[in-house]
Amino acid sequence: MDNSSAPGIRLCTAPLGNTLSLVLVISYLLCVGFGLLAPAQMRMYEAWAPLLPGFEWLTWSGFLIGLVEAYLYGWYFAVLFVPLYRWFSRGGN
To answer: Helix, strand, coil shares of the chain as percentages rounded to 5?
Structure first.
């Protein structure tokens, strides 16, 4: 199929950064909520701890640090992804 007449998709960093950040923040909040309701052996906080420096389970400061870092990870991915996507998409098929 010839895509030469199809309009190109132009990714913008800001919308993608906010989208990815909110996906990660919502995932973080769901995991924290699950951890509060689930039995100890099923909690997800052990998966988050190595990825979020300063995160501590069941402390307000640890919760807020995790929340901010989850948001920043979304921007990190967007800032890397958008230029790479643009680079590879202009190279042709």
So the answer is: 65, 0, 35
- Encoding tokens for residue 38? 């689930």
Q: What are phi and psi of 25, to 5 degrees?
A: -65, -45
Instruction: Please give the C-alpha separations between residue 79 and each of 29, 60, 61, 90, in angstroms, as whole numbers.
Output: 23, 29, 27, 18
DSSP annotation of 5: T
Measured in degrees and rounded to the nearest 5, phi and psi for residue 58 equal 65, 35
* C-alpha dihedral, 35 to 36 to 42 to 47, nearest 10°: 20
> What tens digit of pLDDT does each residue of 26-72 get?
999 999 999 999 898 888 888 888 989 999 998 999 999 999 999 99
Three-class SS of residue 11? coil
CA distance 64 to 60: 6
The pLDDT score that the predictor gives to residue 43 is: 83
